[in-house]
Automatic annotation (TrEMBL):
GO biological process entries: glycerophospholipid biosynthetic process
UniProt record similarity statement: Belongs to the CDP-alcohol phosphatidyltransferase class-I family.
Membrane protein topology class: Multi-pass membrane protein
Membrane-spanning intervals of the chain: 33-59, 133-152, 164-185
Predominant cellular place of this UniProt entry's protein: membrane
Name of this chain's protein: CDP-diacylglycerol--glycerol-3-phosphate 3-phosphatidyltransferase
An annotated Gene Ontology molecular function: CDP-diacylglycerol-glycerol-3-phosphate 3-phosphatidyltransferase activity
Assigned keywords, A-Z: Lipid biosynthesis, Lipid metabolism, Membrane, Phospholipid biosynthesis, Phospholipid metabolism, Transferase, Transmembrane, Transmembrane helix
One Gene Ontology term, aspect cellular component: membrane
Compartment annotation: Membrane
Length: 197
């Protein structure tokens, strides 16, 4: 019997330099640039880069499937890029005084909790947690909320609609983010107890 934590994934190649992986590397390299743009107050440029980031988030997966270049590295790079983007962005927004510390702690604590599961996974010969739809939804909502929160801030473009919509999406996204995280913890507990399905 196979645990729900075991990702069932087929890969097309073990090459590192595939087109989708290059796109993912570019996304990773854009994270510090995006953060610097926010800290320096170049908000419109930061949002433009965010739009490009969001597009490449979809493009790399599409290309991997279309070109039959799905790789284990690519499967790992995608969620790493999302996590780094979220962390770097909320820290940059915190530096600017746009988001409160509690919002950063809520998002960071969830990722720390999941990082603590890695030794359990490795002990059971597993390398990663599969992404569930709740986690994908939470990540999408948070990624969508951050530029709106930025543009709605008084120190930025001060758009009230962006402020409110951004925070609604951000809070809902954070709740979904945590629900997904707790589901992962539940599966890890089942794994430790030897329960499989």
């Amino acid at each position: 019997m196979q645990s729900k934590l075991v990702p069932v994934q087929e890969y097309d190649t073990d090459k590192v330099l595939t087109i989708p992986n290059v796109v993912s590397f570019v996304r990773l390299l854009s994270v510090p640039v995006f953060s610097a743009l926010i800290i320096l107050g170049h908000d419109v440029a930061a949002v433009v880069l965010l739009a490009a980031f969001g597009a490449t988030d979809w493009v790399d997966g599409f290309l991997a499937r279309r070109l039959k270049q799905r790789t284990e590295l690519g499967a790992r790079l995608d969620p790493i890029a999302d996590r780094l983007y979220i962390l770097a962005t909320v820290v940059a927004l915190l530096v600017r005084g746009i988001v409160p510390i509690w919002f950063v702690v809520v998002l960071l604590a969830r990722d720390v909790m999941l990082a603590l599961l890695l030794p359990i996974l490795r002990k059971h010969d597993m390398v990663a947690l599969p992404v569930n739809w709740i986690g994908k939804t939470g990540t999408f909502l948070i990624l969508l909320s951050l530029p709106l929160i930025l543009l709605g801030a008084p120190s930025s473009l001060d758009w009230p609609w962006a402020h409110w919509l951004g925070w609604i999406l951000g809070v809902v996204g954070a709740v979904a983010y945590w629900v997904a995280g707790l589901l992962y913890v539940r599966e890890a507990v089942r794994l430790v107890r030897g329960e499989t399905s």
